[in-house]
């Protein structure tokens, strides 16, 4: 399962069991039947459901979540790079809860500023931009700063 939005709705195939225990794979848990959860850090997570029947029998099932898009809930900035990793072209998708003055900057893996991709007014809602095609292979960090709120995402450029 690839996570391309900021929320995951976990739903068991059977909702008539006595109890449900979700290990969400990042240290958090839920006892709701069908929890809605936000992963706030990029990564690969193994979520596990343990159900208990009326007779006390337990069964479990797992799913792997690839969180390649994250939402900074406090900042209201959602970001995704696709495809990631990328060869020639990649798109940065940005969702903003609030508009305002801001900037989008590109950094290399050691934090050196490579390029300013945008400076100026940024509208609430969803927008996208294409990453520079002339980047050498490597790991990059894209940082969005709007109204003093910051979120960043990692992108990997492959050799062509």
Structure description:
By secondary structure, the chain is an all-beta fold. The chain has strands spanning 2-3, 7-9, 19-23, 29-30, 36-38, 43-52, 58-67, 69-72, 77-82, 91-96, 100-108, 113-122, 125-130, 138-146, 149-157. The strands form four sheets. It has a five-stranded mixed beta sheet with strand order 1-7-6-3-4, with no helix packed on it. Strands 8-9-10-13 form a four-stranded antiparallel beta sheet, with no helix packed on it. A four-stranded antiparallel beta sheet has the order 12-11-14-15, with no helix packed on it. Strand 3 and strand 4 (29-30) form a beta hairpin. The radius of gyration is 19 Å and the shape is elongated. The two termini are 27 Å apart. The model is unreliable at 1-5 (pLDDT under 50).
Spans where pLDDT lies below 50 across 5 or more residues: 1-5
What order do the SSEs take from the amino end to the carboxyl end, as H and E? EEEEEEEEEEEEEEE
> What is the SS-derived class?
mainly beta
Total count of helical runs of at least 4 residues: 0
Q: Helix content range of the residues, please? A: under 10%
Q: State the end-to-end CA separation.
A: 27 Å
Strand fraction equals over 45%
Annotation, overall tally of beta strands: 15
Mind sketching the topology for me?
Layout: E1 2-3, E2 7-9, E3 19-23, E4 29-30, E5 36-38, E6 43-52, E7 58-67, E8 69-72, E9 77-82, E10 91-96, E11 100-108, E12 113-122, E13 125-130, E14 138-146, E15 149-157
Parallel strand pairs: 1-7
Antiparallel strand pairs: 2-5, 3-4, 3-6, 6-7, 8-9, 9-10, 10-13, 11-12, 11-14, 14-15
